[in-house]
């Protein structure tokens, strides 16, 4: 017993001392909601059940498995004078006259609960969802199984008496073509059924064994216009032409319809509904003109023209009289307040069922995929809302400290985080990939076998698909909220990686995603294994190992396994309670922790390590491959674009050369090496990378060599910045001086990256010079954050005005992380300067993003360096949501721990 105690104590002390250094710098920023060891274990995607995983829809819900049914609701404002089909709210849209004023997620937990808000002229729509398992009373329960049921609460508020037409639907969708000859629509609904109960509930079922939608009668608000219903009934009794009845729609009628779309995508459903609405409105126009002709004769009659003008003016004042519906004009009408079209009996089986109901604001309608009482569902919504508020406050306690932020600022941060979580989308389909061979790229493109993928989206409107460059930043936010979700996403990205370590930079997986890819950028859909992308997945990687250390005392795992082997659970709780800060009650917990460590090793060291090796092998010479002299920056740039780097139009060498060396790529590779070093140390896994070829010492040495190369070959003292270069042979005999680097200097994000990633020594003169440039209004500083390119550069605000001046939140986040975690913390000649810069930069960034959110209702892709106004895509709720972490001052694990020397 004594010997065992000595062994355990000795092993514990060794592990404890080795872990203290890694934990000391990060413990003060650990989130209040502790992760669980189970968050790091592989999970089957279908275990998450249904959620808002349908990309880029205002209200679309599905499970994370191929060809899962899609549940959705779309709507249009029947009182708006613009064409109804143009204002049909189905797919997220922020551009154009017909777009809403703003939209976004106000609350979302990344899985079961969320509130989408769409702000329109004089009114707003809120669509709230909660997914739940049978017998579950709270969304925080973990033992009730996957949430297979879904409930929606749709609420319209604002201007009273506005007519809003809602269209609920269920789609037997197909994520990808099965083969070239079979249409996915052939699968269809095995046994479609539509019905309206005596109580007025609408039921849609694609299969006899499964209810897909039950739309309940409104809890608040009238169903359309009672006058509309009276007119319709009266028209059925009187067949004589009447001007009012010929144009007045049946606002109080529920319309139910089944149909078939060719490829089984949500975009096809929205397009089909728009076509129905347009066709129905044309019918109403024809009825009006026919009625006028019957009463006044030929259109040349002055009375005809006067009557037509009066009716047109009246209908412009009350557009809902023109309101179209989804009914088939050729089919027989229903009876009473139900207009149910007969289900097809021949040809293709229907794969979409729809129900249209028009209500007047303010209204509240509940729909569900189950038969629970409406009162029970309302209680679920209220409970889920309370739980979400409590969890957000517990996850971001710094936002609630006295004197820190007000209620509106906290609501902004909550919406920013929720919008990243709400963008998490599931895709299934093949990757459009460049194949070997000669000829144009379009002729060499092929599609791989289908893969499944879970990712956050940069923008639900502009970029409703996965981007590798963005995803590392996204996962910093996701990991703060849920380690399990972040692990799932990281595992998904690394799961689609090829054996050689290549990860596609942009993923349009499946029929829906490819159909929404911009036609003028279709060439970018083809992914090339020769072209890399910044390895941003390393940004959240170490946060996972720090979270694992928080979930379990990993440093003592070996000692605890020895104890379990000898005596099982007998003395485990006593030893851990006495020697550690936590209690481990059972050897089952120890075994689970070991499984979590091994799974994390495989994910971060084997898989992510292979991606590191791929970049070394393919981006030879330390320059971004894929640049060519034919693809020039548009407008007034006239230099090759560098799409692979992420900094597309940032100025570099004016020509492409195989001897180019790019500062940002060198910095990323040094950073990745140091992060792998830290991860190996955290997991006590020296040399555990793929192939075992990289030990901790070798990684550290490699990272230092790259940093030295930056300092000695790429620093330009005259310009006061790091510079891209082209290596030129010299006539010198010494091998160390056989090459000279010709500099191309442009001060901006890429050349600032050695500091932004924390690679430079705190006391190096290079650090001081860059800190001075960052604070200089004539170079990088603005009242809204750091510019992407110095204002003194000749290419400032030229090119595509993308990375040539605008302020971007993710790179400002890296700057703040480097200042907060290293340069403002470590003693040195520039510490005071770094501290002052950190305080002013943090305030500048978050305040401007917040003010623009208040002004426009959106987070933006980037911000104007002269006015602070948002620019580019909106809502850009991907990496711009890092503003919430800036407010919370959370930079844990982003800057590597290595020491210079």
From TrEMBL:
Pfam families documented for this protein: Glyco_hydro_63 (PF03200), Glyco_hydro_63N (PF16923)
Catalyzed reaction equations: N(4)-(alpha-D-Glc-(1->2)-alpha-D-Glc-(1->3)-alpha-D-Glc-(1->3)-alpha-D-Man-(1->2)-alpha-D-Man-(1->2)-alpha-D-Man-(1->3)-[alpha-D-Man-(1->2)-alpha-D-Man-(1->3)-[alpha-D-Man-(1->2)-alpha-D-Man-(1->6)]-alpha-D-Man-(1->6)]-beta-D-Man-(1->4)-beta-D-GlcNAc-(1->4)-beta-D-GlcNAc)-L-asparaginyl-[protein] + H2O = N(4)-(alpha-D-Glc-(1->3)-alpha-D-Glc-(1->3)-alpha-D-Man-(1->2)-alpha-D-Man-(1->2)-alpha-D-Man-(1->3)-[alpha-D-Man-(1->2)-alpha-D-Man-(1->3)-[alpha-D-Man-(1->2)-alpha-D-Man-(1->6)]-alpha-D-Man-(1->6)]-beta-D-Man-(1->4)-beta-D-GlcNAc-(1->4)-beta-D-GlcNAc)-L-asparaginyl-[protein] + beta-D-glucose
Residue span(s) of domain Glycosyl hydrolase family 63 C-terminal: 376-889
Coiled-coil residues: none
Keywords, sorted A to Z: Endoplasmic reticulum, Glycoprotein, Glycosidase, Hydrolase, Membrane, Signal, Signal-anchor, Transmembrane, Transmembrane helix
Position of the signal peptide: 1-24
GO BP annotations, alphabetical order: oligosaccharide metabolic process; protein N-linked glycosylation
Lipid bilayer topology: Single-pass type II membrane protein
Main location: endoplasmic reticulum
EC number: 3.2.1.106
Annotated InterPro entries: 6-hairpin_glycosidase_sf, 6hp_glycosidase-like_sf, Glyco_hydro_63_C, Glyco_hydro_63N, Glyco_hydro_63N_sf, Glycoside_hydrolase_63
Assigned GO CC terms: endoplasmic reticulum membrane
The UniProt record lists the keyword Protein transport: no
All residue ranges annotated as the Glycosyl hydrolase family 63 N-terminal domain in the record: 51-178
Enzymatic class: hydrolase
Compartments in which it is found: Endoplasmic reticulum membrane
Name of the protein in question: Mannosyl-oligosaccharide glucosidase
Species lineage: Eukaryota, Rhodophyta, Bangiophyceae, Cyanidiales, Cyanidiaceae
